Structures
1.
Amino acid sequence: MRETGAWLIAGLGLLMLGLTVLRRGLQALTGTWAARRLEALEGRPLSALIAGGAVTAALQSSSAATIFLVGAAGAGLLRLEAAMPAVLGANVGSAVTLGVFALPLDRAWAPLLALAGGLALLPRRTPRAIGAALAGLLGALFGLRALGRAAAAVGAPVTAAMAEHPLRAFVAGVVLTAILQSSTVAGGLSAAWLAAGQADLKAATAFLLGANVGTTLDTAAAGLLSPREGRLVAAWHVAVNAVGAVLFLPAVDLLARAAATAPSPLAAIATVQFWFNALSAAAFFPLMNPAARLLRAVDRRLFPPRA
């Protein structure tokens, strides 16, 4: 039991540390690109959607991307209508991290680690940022390995409940992701349970739908502390993820089948994440204007402007 606990702590620690280092390396590479793109979002929803996905791929976190959008809106840099498609794009981009982790890097980790170390020693900023991003990726991959060794033991009560009904798997995904505050970590857990044979793809899919709801907690908290426009962006993110997950919950079989031919458990989870968010974005994209009017009306009722 002690060994399992050690693997669990080491796995979670390495995964979160690796994601942080990866994100900082990519942020150093992208510089102020995201801020410069904000001015081009207004009136170009498709470009904003693509930019949202690109920002998430750069930050390696949909939560970081949406909090960035909430902060930008709260600071008056963009309106709700400009941020809405970017939020949809950020959700789609969240599948990128899991997709990268699913790459077959087993035989290449030693030369990649040596390359990361060599780049980190160079004086120029760009090679150092690439080295940091590569080191973060490898650290996160090692964390997923360690997490996989522990997940089979500590996840037994959770996965047993998940196997009984998709709704229980959904609730487990909401709760665990709200605690961990990372849908990537939740995806890694579900992939580990899948690899260990403790959860089938249907239960893992329902768990991942719940994870997409749980990951909105930090965005909601940022929105509550933000001025009106930022609050509206946060409300849109929560509404899209929550409503989308509830609507897709009866269709977990279809989502699971779409990922059934994936070459690995992580690739299957990345596939589910991509299709769920891509289909949600397609469903909500034409509804953005009426949704914006509704959100503004509700916000005025709940938070009436001061006289």
2.
Amino acid sequence: MTYPEVIPISYEPDYHTDRIGRWRDGQFLGGVVPAFREGYSRTEDWLSHKRWYAVLHRFSPEGHYLDSRVECTGADDRHRESVDAADRRLDEWFTELPDLEFGDIAIRPFRLEFDGVVFGLILEDHEGEECAELYPNNLGFYAPWDGLYDT
């Protein structure tokens, strides 16, 4: 495989990658994301199974994974309340990152599980094409590895 050591991710204000950038000690990737727990099969009460998470991953200046903060703030059956709570939590976490500046990042693949959900930037093969998939966001990064993604 010919994956790059670090995967560039472009900052896009008001879109999927609008909460990424750098801080005094490295880089960060944050977001508010919905996800179903692994193994979930669609049921009539699916809204109560679709959970909302505030997520903040931190990386070294070279893109090595350091740690994550993840918090489930509710389910989609209370959509607005759950999303607003996740936004508030993420904003609180951002205040703890000195010299925070939004912008492009370049990070190495990583993976973690929280609350039965996979989070991370995971190297995969999609129909014969190398890809780095950001979970649970479902953003795919491909050659020419320019930071742009497919949804």
3.
Amino acid sequence: MGYSVSLVLGVPIGRVIASAYDWKVIFGGIGIFTVLGFIAIAITIPSMQSEAPIPLGEQLALLKNPKVAFALGVSLFVFIGYSVVNTYITPFLTSAISISGKEVSVILFALGIASLFGSKLGGFLADRIDTTRTLIVSIVLQTLSLAMVSALSGFAVVVIVLLMIWSVAVWMFGPTQNFNLLSIAPEASGIMLSLNSTFVQLGFAAGAGIGGIAVGGSSILAICWIGTAAVAVALFITVASLGLTRSLSSERG
């Protein structure tokens, strides 16, 4: 919820500040709010005894578990797809549907609202239809919506609606995947969440880099096709993981 609310408020506010003043002002504001965050943490969160540090080798040993490796691979490719599109969403919107800067701010605000709804929907569906089905629904929706954005980039209203569906689907994935990883290795919950965060950040970095190469060498319109391909890989890994799980279950049976 915290991530979603920050997207709802932070992105459009940042654009307004950059338009009214200067983009450098944003970084000063981030610094101030970071300091305020430190103060709030120091005041409100009680001191507690930390857990014994776990060697990096033991943490990475979890990757020997095929279910863990597959799950983290899914996180990696989902967020490569997300980062490729989200990093360059503003130039994509201005190029694909020819809108102004103010209209971009409104659309980004709408996408933030969609992400907030997606976080809640992911938790709701995980409780109702289980985590695996929710993850599959999320990844399929991401793949289809990005593919359709690429194919229908000339239709402004359709593109905006599809991007909102994509935003809902991406943020359905996050909390559901966290719960999925905890269920795979409940005895190492802290390490699992840490590894997942690492793979998510790798996805962000790789997606931004791949998108930059595509935009520089091809066209801004290519980012949605690249995002589609990345999420399709995540879907393939998910299906392969399900097949592996069933195979292991059959052997045990």
